[in-house]
Amino acid sequence: MGLIKFLGSTAGRVTRAVAGILLIIWGASANLWVLIAVGIVFIAAGLFDFCLLAPLFKKPFNGKKLRDSFK
Question: What's the pTM?
Fold first, then answer.
């Protein structure tokens, strides 16, 4: 549950966006479109404040609601 709490935080959002950028760079250099697509999803998750893993742990998908669920 600590991972989900981290991913919902501001630091988690930044980490997802940075990981997305790195995946896009890696995918572009290796010509792997799958990595580029995953990188775009990571960046979108960071920018638009959602967590794809949270519903697996019965937590809200939306970042604000996710953070509120830990209060």
Answer: 0.85
CA–CA separation, 9 and 69 (whole Å): 12
Task: Give the separation between CA 16 and CA 10, rounded to whole angstroms.
Answer: 10
Pull the structure tokens for residue 27.
Answer: 């995918």
CA pair distance 64, 55, nearest whole angstrom: 14
HEC string of the chain equals: CHHHHHHHCHHHHHHHHHHHHHHHHHHHHHCCHHHHHHHHHHHHHHHCCECCCHHHHCCCCEHHHHHHHCC
**CA-to-CA separations, 38 to 32, 46, 53, in angstroms, rounded:** 10, 13, 14
Over the stretch 45-64, which tens digit does the pLDDT of each residue have? 999 999 999 999 999 999 99
Q: 67, exposed or middle or buried, with CB in 10 Å at 0-12, 13-18, 19+?
A: middle
